[in-house]
Specification:
356 residues; alpha+beta; Immunoglobulin-like; Cyclophilin; 2 domains; eight-stranded antiparallel β-sheet; 28% strand
């Protein structure tokens, strides 16, 4: 379904204005440059590698065009970021809010090759405010796009404001986002899993879901359990303990500022160690969704942005961490439907009840 840009959504766009947020693969990706002067457009992948024409192509103020014309690579599935910057300026001096262009393919068996849908969103981050401090969260748009969109939508609707971290397992995870506060609540719907190669490092956000009893023997979760997430999420505390979650839970973002805060939250008194119920559950005062600007850009280090060149050249692989070789092998097996992790973890899983 094509989604038009509402007046509320306009606040998240500035210099680069898409005609809509969802495009069919046969439709032009119409973009308007809303600027007072000429700008240059640069397209990168999610590792920060520049794609398309070099030097960057100039566009006049109020000019509208099909984004595929200067960037035909957008006919290829992938996750891209579009920047506008004044002529002669470096990439870190971009103007307005960059756009995330997610060219999605249909991975169902028998589906035709090529793009199935194109999503265009402003590049955003989240501020997670608690009494203990505020954390800055950057999203993995490339690894878990549907999960990121769901979290951003809930944040914009202020769904999380006033909810709690209802479950804390010291040195493992803190879990929140349940409107019931007992681990059984959700937004009234479920989303599909997007298990990916992002490791569950300290500070990584991932989606809680129902636990499949078969997982006790090391099997991967069956689809009914894998696709049971909704609004509950957890933040990892110690990778030595959370490594076992790789490939089994949808990692979708990471805390890039405020890591000490999650450990402060994890240190509150626990009333019931068996369930992880805190004596006084810490409150999520607010989750704000904020558009990226050159002055507020938590992705700068994740996407390898620097001031070395006006048009960045090829650079080393992204600094966003990926899994170790043994975990990458598990991801491959998951994609093939044959994955099985030998042994069991001694940690309780980040689960939620069946009620949504």
């Amino acid at each position: 379904m094509v989604q038009a840009i509402t007046p509320v959504m306009m606040m998240f766009f500035s210099v680069l204005l898409p005609a809509r947020m969802d495009y069919a693969p046969t439709q032009p990706i119409d973009i308007t440059v809303s600027a007072k002067r000429q700008v240059m457009l640069l397209l990168t992948d999610f590792s920060g590698k520049t794609l398309g024409v070099t030097p960057a192509q100039a566009f006049n103020a109020e000019q509208s065009f099909d984004l595929r014309d200067p960037f035909p690579i957008l006919n290829t599935p992938g996750t891209y970021i579009l920047y506008a910057l004044p002529p002669g300026q470096k990439l870190t001096h971009f103007v307005g809010t960059p756009l995330v262009v997610d060219v999605r393919e249909d991975n169902r068996p028998g589906a035709p090759a090529g793009p199935a849908i194109i999503h265009v969103d402003p590049l955003c981050f989240a501020l997670l405010k608690t009494a203990q401090g505020t954390m800055t969260v950057a999203f993995y748009y490339d690894a878990a796009p549907h999960t990121v969109r769901n979290f951003i939508q809930l944040g914009r609707r202020r769904f999380y404001d006033g909810l709690t971290f209802h479950r804390i397992v010291p040195d493992y995870i803190i879990q929140g986002g349940d409107p019931r506060g007992d681990g059984r609540g959700g937004p009234g719907y479920q989303i599909d899993a997007e298990f990916n190669s992002r490791p569950h490092l300290e500070g990584v956000l991932s989606m809680a879901r129902a636990t499949d009893p078969n997982e006790q023997a090391g099997a991967l979760p069956r689809s009914d359990f894998a696709n049971s997430a909704g609004s509950q999420f957890f933040i990892c505390l110690n990778y030595d303990k959370t490594r076992a979650l790789n490939g089994r839970y949808t990692a979708f973002g990471q805390v890039v500022d405020g890591l000490p805060i999650i450990h402060t939250l994890a240190a509150v008194p626990i009333a019931d160690p068996q369930t992880g119920r805190p004596a006084v559950p810490p409150v999520i005062q607010q989750i704000s969704i904020v558009p990226v600007t050159k002055d507020e850009n938590p992705y700068a280090s994740l996407l390898n942005l620097n001031d070395a060149d006006t048009v960045p050249v090829d650079r080393p692989p992204t600094t966003i961490p990926t899994t170790q070789p043994q975990d990458q092998e598990l991801i491959r097996k998951i994609e093939e439907g044959t994955g099985h992790r030998s042994g069991t973890t001694t940690q309780p899983t980040p689960s939620q009840g069946s009620a949504q």
